[in-house]
Amino acid sequence: MTPIRELSQEVTEQIAAGEVVESPLSVVKELVENSLDAGATKVEVRIENGGLDEVRVFDNGYGLEKEEVPLAFRRHATSKLDSLETLIQDLHTLGFRGEALPSIATVSRVIFTSRKPAKLVGSIFHIEAGEIISHEETGCPPGTEVIVRDLFFNTPARKKFAQSRSREASRIAQLITGIAFSHPEVSFTLYHGKKTIFKSSGDGNLQNLIIEAYSREVAQSMVTVSTARSASEGELSLKGMISAPYLTRSSRRYQTMLVNRRLVYSPLLSQALERAYYGLLKKGRFPVAVLYLQVPPAFVDVNIHPAKSEVRFQNPKEVNQLVFYGAKESLQRCSTAYYFQEENRSSPSYYTFKGSSNLSENSPSFSSPNFPMEARSMDKTTNYGTSSLQNSTGEKDKAEKEVQQKITDSSLELVTRVDRNIVPSEKGAFQIIGQYLASYLVAEKNGDLVLIDQHAAHERVIYEKLRQEHSLHSISRVQLAVPLTLELPSSWADNFSTLLPWLEEGGFHLELFGRNTYVVREIPAFLMEFFEEQFFWDLLEEMLFSERYDHEELMDLFKAFACKSAVKAHQKLSLEEMEELINKWQLTSNSGYCPHGRPVAVTFGKEQLQRGFQRRGGGSNNEGKPRSKKE
Ligand code: ADP
Ligand code: MG
């Protein structure tokens, strides 16, 4: 047995250091936070070899006087904390433990160069494994540069990171991106070796930052969130941007949550956000989001452990509702029309115009508070105008139908056209032009050309109806004239009874009839027309073997029903059928996307089309006028 002995000071320090400096990532985090605390507006980070060989952080902040530098490397020395009271009341600064620099210096070789902007010279301080090597005056730019070399060279931890350099580099990239979102007014640059990994302008504009962090395509899909509510504890507010449902990612890594501008990890916030997308996303897909939650300081408890900032709210329900309703409201604003974007590759790209493809020309400036989708999305209140259209054209219907039939009979025609002179319809109303490929309704609205996927639109109409009936617990049922007898395979029999409550909730009534036999007496009314025995068997099998009979599964069931019962593509519709579909669809919530998350309608803006024809867009007065007399 080894005798008990005191650990050497060196070992104790290394253990303590390990708590703060657990990885190259945490070195970067501590140094960048120090730069921000020093009021920097420009922070440059360079890493070599995943940060293991070198982390270098340069900032243009306040800097330190020469005599302050050694103090900064003494344990529990900090310029950021006067009393415990300050700590509790005001956590403006990011670090306050006064441990980072000494800890880092214990396990690496550090060169700390700093100059106060008002001074002519600064100083360069060199410390290795906690031992001061030198400290001299030097000429240097204002601000501070910290170089951390050979991290963990004197501990076994180095080996651990040697194998995960590229992973560490991407974690660092993600950290810097997150920090950039928490400080949009600071310009950040991250280099790995010679490669620029991330660069932000620091102009304070969130949309620009989203382009810099992700891409233009992502930025284009984003809609603004802005909401507030007052709780008994004070005012809560939420601002930021979330992606339209057609743009999703396979993980939550693209969700940045900030509470009082501090980057946090919060399942509660993510879940509240994702609930707002309910019925709009495929399984395993997650929206992109940058959300800034502002709450009274007493409302929130942030665990400030360097590696993970978990957050706890005093009143989680309020926060949950703020995020859910805020996001939902934004999604509704953007829900009706998916706008065709020229050369937009991430979202479904239907066609590409040759010629004009300059984003800034085609969409409003990113600094404007509205996105194209929001600005042009169809406003619910104006949609209701359609019925008057129907009345005014009612008399012509018969004649139109005849013409239409003539045209549909010609197999050469791709577009079934309703013989109508298309002039701009009344504001907000759809005017049907015809049907394209017997699959898409072609309509005009506010001077724009809209293609509506008839199957997807109908699917959404049915799905929303089901969802509504389900939430009211009032799925209309009908009795089958001839009850369907189900003789179950014996392998099913054991678990089948667990399905019964779910089937009941979904509008089916089954009764046991002998050992492995059930009779289906009632089915949901909406299925009456489409009910097929085979389909029902498939459904049961799927439910039984997926072993998930939760709410979501039921919704999936509804989606399957909706899909099954909706009009199909390649199905010719009469004008009345088209109008009925469009009218119902307009009144449906979440109408912009089918239950599987695909866009239902694609809108071609008038100006956009005119540009395609090389005509000048814009003013309605010179509509149709050629660009010049020569043309
Ligand atoms: P803390 O940040 O908790 O105070 P640190 O060990 O991270 O502890 O830093 C110690 C002190 O060094 C800080 O309080 C600050 O005064 C000074 N300091 C560190 N980095 C910088 C920097 N980039 N610019 C100016 N001062 C800095
Ligand atoms: Mg610090």
The radius of gyration over CA amounts to 31 Å
The share of residues in extended strands comes to 15-25%
Strand tally is 26
Total of DSSP H or I helical runs spanning 4+ residues:
22
Question: Which term fits the overall shape?
Answer: elongated
What small molecules does the structure contain? adenosine-5'-diphosphate, magnesium ion
**What helical percentage do the residues reach?**
25-40%
* Residue runs with pLDDT of under 50 for 5 or more positions: 82-96, 335-413, 618-631
Distance from N terminus to C terminus (CA atoms, Å) equals: 99 Å
Overall mean confidence score, pLDDT: 76
Largest sheet data: 8 strands, mixed
Given the helix and strand composition, which structural class is it? alpha+beta
Oligomer: single chain
Largest beta sheet: what is the strand line-up? 5-4-3-6-2-1-7-8
Descriptive notes:
- It is a single chain.
- This protein is 35% helix and 23% strand.
- With 631 residues, it is α+β, with helices and mostly antiparallel strands.
- Strands 5-4-3-6-2-1-7-8 form an 8-stranded mixed beta sheet, with helices on one face.
- The longest helix is centred in the first third of the chain and has 18 residues.
- The chain starts with 8 loop residues before the first helix and ends in a 19-residue tail after the last helix.
- The site of magnesium ion has 5 residues, from helix 2.
